[in-house]
Amino acid sequence: MNVLLDNLSLYGEGLLGTVELTVYASLLALALGFLMAAFRVAPVGSLRAIGTVWVNVLRNTPLTLLFFAVVLGLPRFGLVLPFKLFAVLALGCYTSAFICEAVRSGINTVPTGQGEAARSLGMSFPQTLGDIVLPQAFRSVIPPIGSTLIALAKNSAIAGAFSVVELLGVYKPLSEMGYSIIWTFVWIAVGYLLVTLTISAVFHVLEKHYGAAR
Predict the structure, then answer these.
(1) Which conformational region is residue 124 in: left (phi greater than 0), alpha (psi within -120 to 50 degrees), or beta?
(2) Residues above pLDDT 90, as percent of the chain
(3) What is the pLDDT of residue 56?
(4) Longest dimension (CA), the chain
(5) Residue 196: which residues within 8 A CB-CB, separation 6 or more?
(6) CA-CA-CA-CA dihedral for 141, 142, 148, 154, to nearest 10
């Protein structure tokens, strides 16, 4: 317990950093994921191509490599941001590819007849998708989206290697101060457990209220 109690502020700062990264990157991932899912089922070929390229490139790129590309590559094009924002961009864009596929799978569970009926009533594609398809698809994609955001929370540990304050980075100063590395990591693991269990609880409530009956 001494490792935790003697360095409570350090652990708290790291936990707060992980929570902030998770929240901001999750919002970005959800926004981009739903947008790319809409692109992938759009009747316009160019939009489908954009969605396909986005998913295939990001899903098949190691997250660490994406961090290097964002942190080291974007400043060469004049985009200079704090490292935390670079981390949010890398995490959010990477996770959005998985969100996109989860949402697209949910869209595919909606009977095609409903979309055809909406179009026969004169509804546009955005209206059909937003008012008819997505509300039904959302019910079936709550569990996979929750799992994806839990993975995002754990992936945020990579940001510590790029000078971003987060929970895993706590071990460096504590190791230099001579604290037990085992107990240092035990309390780090407890911190990540708190974050992931919170996400799990939120999505359990969402699934209970909005999820599809099984």
Answers:
(1) beta
(2) 49
(3) 95
(4) 71
(5) 150, 153, 154
(6) 180
Comparing 79 with 26, which gets the higher pLDDT?
26
Task: With beta carbons less than 8 A apart as the criterion, state whether 149 and 29 touch.
Answer: yes
Structure-token pair, residue 53 = 């390229």
Quickly list DSSP for 83-149. HHHHHHHHHHHHHHHHHHHHHHHHHHHS-HHHHHHHHHTT--HHHIIIIIIHHHHHHHHHHHHHHHH
Q: Give the tens place of pLDDT for each residue, 144-193.
A: 999 999 999 999 999 888 878 888 888 788 877 777 788 888 888 999 99
CATH number for the region 8-210 comes to: 1.10.3720.10
User: Rounded to whole angstroms, how far apart are CA atoms 207 and 45?
Assistant: 34
**What residues does each domain of the chain span?**
8-210
Instruction: Count CB atoms within 10 A of the CB of residue 153.
Output: 22
